Amino acid sequence: MPTLDASRCLRTGRPLDASGTPLDGSALEIDPDGRAATLLRDSPRALASSPGTGTWATLLADSDSSPDGRPVLLQWLAPDASSPPAHVHPTTETFEAVDGTLTVVADGTPARLGPGEETTIESGTAHTFRNDTDRVVAFRAELPSMRTVRALYTLWGLDHTGAFDDDGGYAEPDLIHSLVIGRELSDETMLAAVPNVVQRILWATVCPVASAAGYSGIDDSYLDDRFWQQHVEQPFR
Length: 237
Hints:
- This protein is α+β, with helices and mostly antiparallel strands.
- It has one domain (10-231): Jelly Rolls (Sandwich).
- Helices cover 24% and strands 24% of the residues.
- The chain has five helices and 13 strands.
- The strands form four sheets. The chain has a six-stranded antiparallel beta sheet with strand order 3-4-5-12-7-10, with helices on both faces.
- Helix 3 packs across helix 4.
- The radius of gyration is 17 Å and the shape is globular.
């Protein structure tokens, strides 16, 4: 697979400090002539990120502007990006590789998608996705609903606030935050490896205590482009 020419790549997506200065660390490097750059340039929304999970994303269409009512997300995964646990939806979900090779695992069977290739996960099928390569992968996903988008943006936003790290740094979501937000997705997303009854018991026992301790669920303030403009280096703006 050809490597990206660093001398001409678009470098963006770094976290910003309080003064708006990019911090040292992982940056999103994009071929300015590639399809991912075109989609990003045409996106109506800001570039979001989660440094703790090695993820960048922009919402290409919400449920109101998408032709079929399904939100569409353009997402990038760093080589060391976290892979979500296998999960199921009561609706289909479609993944399309835009740049690089995306691995989508359905019912334990991995499929490698090259640019322009797509796969649709049928309802009730356990699935996840990951980057098995040594370069950033871009893909387009048609998600179950805007509630899924709202949950993802909440988790990514919380990462920027230092909510997952005792020292206020970037980190993967912790168990409590995942449970509290997961409860709000319970009718459209369930973990595949944990019996449904166990998940519901955890939500019923842990979430009330977590809420009393100040943990909150989906927060739509993280859908506001101004948050991302203040926390993530933006291209084309």
